[in-house]
Amino acid sequence: MVESLVPNRERLAIVIDTLGEPFFHDAMIEYLSELFGGLKGLSLLYHKSAQPEILVNQVLDENVQEIYLSGLYILDPLNNVTRDNLSA
């Protein structure tokens, strides 16, 4: 892959350029995967008073994702910390 020949700082600059774009999370997970050797990623967007949105899912199978979003997220410590720290 040509991207692997690009120095890490330049690849990170490319990711930073995607900030605010819909594909930022995909770009960040791809960068981290290349940096740390084949990681799989999961990116969630938590809300104060709604279920989280799964932005990138390379980890959970569809059944687990459905169970999580149907209410299991209420027990997720990251969800609870985020809800406690988000302003209304």
Helix count?
A: 4
Whole-number mean pLDDT: 89
Helix content: 40-55%
* Terminal residue distance: 45 Å
Query: Per the principal axes of the C-alpha atoms, what is the gross shape?
Result: elongated
* Helix and strand sequence: HHEEHH
Compute the number of strand runs.
2
Q: Pairing-aware structural class of the strands and helices?
A: mainly alpha
- Portion of residues in beta strands equals 5-15%
Q: What is the topology, as strand order, of the major beta sheet?
A: 1-2
Can you offer a commentary on this structure?
There is one protein chain. By secondary structure, the chain is mainly alpha-helical. The protein has one domain. 45% of the residues lie in helices and 10% in strands. It has helices spanning 8-17, 24-36, 62-69, 77-85; strands at 42-45, 53-57. The longest helix is centred in the middle third of the chain and has 13 residues, at 24-36.
